[in-house]
Amino acid sequence: MRLIIDTDTAGDDTYSMLLAMKTPGSTLEAVTVCVGNVPFDQQVENALATIEVAGFSGKIPVYCGARRPMVKPWEPSTMHGNDGMSGANLPIARQRPETLHAVDAIIEKVMAAPGEIDILAQAPLTNIALAVMKEPRIAKAVRHLWIMGGTDNSVGNITPCAEYNFFIDPEAARIVFEAGFNITLSTWTLTMRSSLFEADQLEEIFAMQTPLSEFYRKVSAVPRQTAEARYGRPISTHPDSLTCAIALNPDLIESARDAVVRIETMGEITRGFSAVHPPVLGNRWPDFKVNARVVEVASNDGFFWMMKQAFS
Ligand code: BDR
Ligand code: CA
């Protein structure tokens, strides 16, 4: 599979990149950085450092994209520490970012190989929305768009109604869901259901003592502490890397449904909420077209196995 990852590189974004670099059959063709978790230039350094740690320095270009959301001001995520890497203090990578803008890189790569490139969008959707506004043909030329964001009509992680990626740029999310892409959506609801590693799984990874399992141990430290305070046990959550694992191996999906996904852009309390509903609502409403497949349950065992393979 030929893949572009659009990322706000921090914590779990980096394990997703490791999966894409290390899983046989996957070619990570480019990384595009988007506004999100931590200050923009730090995210670029985190992406470059991750590529270097994985042994792919100079082989995967990194492009800089949108530095702020479309309408509302940027807000950092507090999940991953100030540097997004739990203070792991990785050396500055030798590779430097490209000069071409991420939006143009996405358009160029997709239009050069229509129907061949998948995009994994694991950040606010600003870059993808700007790309499809500039070149609407990419909606049909991207083979598949795998999105991590929103909830399945459930509780979010940044507000009770919203997940971070859609909350930060709901206008961009709305544009992307209305653009005609072939979308699979992996939500925060799925994250809490299928992506968690419990204490025994974490011990198994730490016991591997490989350079990449050590990278995982260090970079996941702050989110694990936050999760322990919030959920009462030392779990680790993997919204982005589960989405990547599903993209690389859709057999992980145990249950999914076709749905209409609409993003709330105006609600005072519900801004960034993803309404996930069937195409026909009743006679007060027009019929809506299905615009995404929403993953409900994925195999935690299969995901855990893929992560261990990537770290080995
Ligand atoms: C998403 O937001 C970010 O904090 C994570 O990187 C992930 O993409 C989870 O809400
Ligand atoms: Ca992310």
Automatic annotation (TrEMBL):
Entry keywords, A to Z: Glycosidase, Hydrolase
Name used for this protein in its record: Nucleoside hydrolase
Keyword Hydrolase: yes
Superkingdom of the source species: Bacteria
GO-annotated molecular function: purine nucleosidase activity
Keyword NAD: no
Gene3D superfamilies linked: Ribonucleoside hydrolase-like
Ranges of residues in domain Inosine/uridine-preferring nucleoside hydrolase: 3-292
Cellular-component GO terms for this entry: cytosol
A single GO BP: purine nucleoside catabolic process
